[in-house]
Amino acid sequence: MKKIVILDAKTLGSVDLERFRAFGSLLVFQTTTVTEVLDRISEADIVITNKVVIGKNELSAAKNLKLVCVAATGVNNIDLIECKKRGVAVCNVVGYSTRSVAQITFSSILSFVSKSCYFDNFVKSGSYAKSDIFTDLSREFSEIAGKRFCVIGLGNIGKSIYKIAKNFGCKVCYYSTSGENSQKGYKRVSFEDMLECDIISIHCGLNEKTKNLFDSGALARIKKTAILANFGRGGIVCEKSVAGAIDDNRIGGYVTDVFEAEPMMSDSPLLS
After folding, report:
1. Identical topology for domains 3-91 and 97-256
2. How distant, in Å, are the alpha carbons of 60, 165, 234 from that of 146?
3. Is the dihedral of CA 205, 159, 91, 87 positive or negative?
4. What percent of the chain has pLDDT over 90?
5. Is pLDDT of 181 > 80?
6. Where are the domains of the chain?
7. When comparing pLDDT for 87 and 97, which is higher?
8. Could you report the per-residue pLDDT of 105-161, keeping only the tens digit for each?
9. What residues contact residue 166 under an 8 Å CB cut-off, 6+ apart?
10. Which residues of 248-263 are buried (b: 16+ CB within 10 A; e: fewer)?
């Protein structure tokens, strides 16, 4: 009977995991720390993980391991090279979150552009009720229609973002991180042209070509009013550099739901 281990069930929400018992014996851990991984997968045939990292050391101890299932789209938490060496298959969940990621991307960008949090607080604080002109003109906001909008990464999510941005009236293009992806019906631009866009939305994976794609050099060349949105992976944007750009008013803003270290560290430059 195959041994199935789930390392971080708590991150999966209200999912019925009992169905996995039809495929073998099941061992479920709600969370797993870095020091616990090796012992917990040592006898497993199949490992299911969402956020737990499985590297070379852990794989070397898992002599029976045949399959790693990542309960997400990105697989940068798995040592793919070592898995290939050992004949361990790696599967992910493609397309499961396309619409939800597109939704959170635009809700975040629109909230930032429209200063929604500020105006929400303005009303809730009672300032709106006290205003003799019942409005607040201290914060300007703009429309995204007519803005140059660049999508980085033209997978399922990237294509969805591209189409929605077009529906908002944006002038949309995309940048291929591999330099090899050209698709009919989608306008491809160079890295330099991408840096000239008003809104840059990241939806690619983290690899040797995308790590620190937005370092201090790239951030120094983007428009001072540009909005950089990262919904791909934290390591694509250098957090120290983007925090410095924000502090120095060299960028319009940074919107993200991913971080270089997850969970986010208390000393993250984005918090200071």
Report:
1. yes
2. 53, 10, 28
3. negative
4. 87
5. no
6. 3-91, 97-256
7. 87
8. 999 999 999 999 999 999 999 999 999 998 899 998 899 999 999 999 999 999 999
9. 172
10. eebbbbbbbebbbeee
Residue in this structure with the two tokens 């490992």, named with its chain if needed: 47
Does pTM top 0.70 for this prediction?
yes
**DSSP strand pairing (89-91 vs 46-49):** unpaired
Domain 97-256, what architecture?
3-Layer(aba) Sandwich (3.40)
Six token digits for residue 106: 């635009």
How high is the mean pLDDT of the chain? 95
DSSP the chain: --EEEES-GGGG-S---GGGGGGSEEEE-S---GGGHHHHHTT-SEEEESS--B-HHHHHH-TT--EEEESSS--TTB-HHHHHHHT-EEE--TTTTHHHHHHHHHHHHHHHHHTHHHHHHHHHTTHHHH-TTSS--SS-----TT-EEEEE--SHHHHHHHHHHHHTT-EEEEE-SSS----TTS-B--HHHHTT-SEEEE----STTTTTSB-HHHHTTS-TT-EEEE-S-GGGB-HHHHHHHHHTT-SSEEEES--SSSSPPTT-TTT-
Whole-angstrom distance, CA of residue 105 vs CA of residue 203? 10
Indicate the fold that domain 3-91 takes in CATH. Answer: Rossmann fold (3.40.50)
